[in-house]
Design brief:
The chain has one domain: Hexapeptide repeat proteins (UDP N-Acetylglucosamine Acyltransferase, domain 1), CATH 2.160.10.10. Helices cover about 20% and strands about 30% of the residues. It has 4 helices and 20 strands. The longest helix has 19 residues.
């Protein structure tokens, strides 16, 4: 029988109030409090390495930063997350190399059932998110569950990304759509 954590990571319905998951979120919140209050960059980098599943080389995450677990987030090399980003990482969130993420970007791998009766059970689910290499996501964008953003793509500020975006394009809007190919 699968644990609630195993079901969560597979994107199945799971109970977020499972004691193991509650404890993991509590531990992450404590580390995030320290990270967000730490003035020393070297110490923040140490804390970030304890929070995240993987942190590549030359990564900068400006505080404040918020996430559910952190352990389900993979950051490639040369990644920059600007102030006030939120990542709800109930399933894997993979951020490639050379990615720039603007302020107040929100990345939501978590979701809830559409059916009201199922929502009343309190069960949740998620879908993995993948952001390819050399992507730039403008400030205030929302990336929704199950989305893949292709390499070298630019997402316009304030966009709501509800479906996959191919590589090498500029996409923007609500819902986000391809505006043009990039050279």
């Amino acid at each position: 029988m699968a644990t609630e954590r195993e079901k969560m990571l597979r994107g199945e319905l799971y109970n977020a109030m499972d004691p193991e998951l509650v404890a993991a979120r509590r531990q992450t919140r404590e580390l995030l409090r320290a990270f967000n209050a730490e003035p020393d960059e070297a110490r923040r980098s140490e804390l970030l390495a304890r929070i995240m599943g993987r942190v590549g080389e030359n990564v900068i995450v400006e505080p404040p930063f918020f996430c559910d677990y952190g352990s389900n987030i993979t950051l490639g090399d040369n990644v920059f997350l600007n102030y006030n980003c939120v990542v709800l990482d109930v399933t894997p969130v993979t951020i490639g190399n050379g990615v720039l993420i603007g302020p107040a970007v929100q990345i939501y791998a978590a979701t809830h059932p559409l059916d009201v009766e199922m929502r009343r059970t309190g069960l949740e689910m998620g879908a993995p998110i993948e952001i390819g290499d050399e992507v730039w996501i403008g400030g205030g964008a929302l990336i929704l569950p199950g989305v893949t953003i292709g390499a070298r793509t630019v997402i316009g500020a304030g966009s709501v990304v509800t479906r996959d975006i191919p590589e090498g394009v500029f996409a923007a809007g609500n819902p986000c759509r391809v505006i043009r190919a990039l050279e």
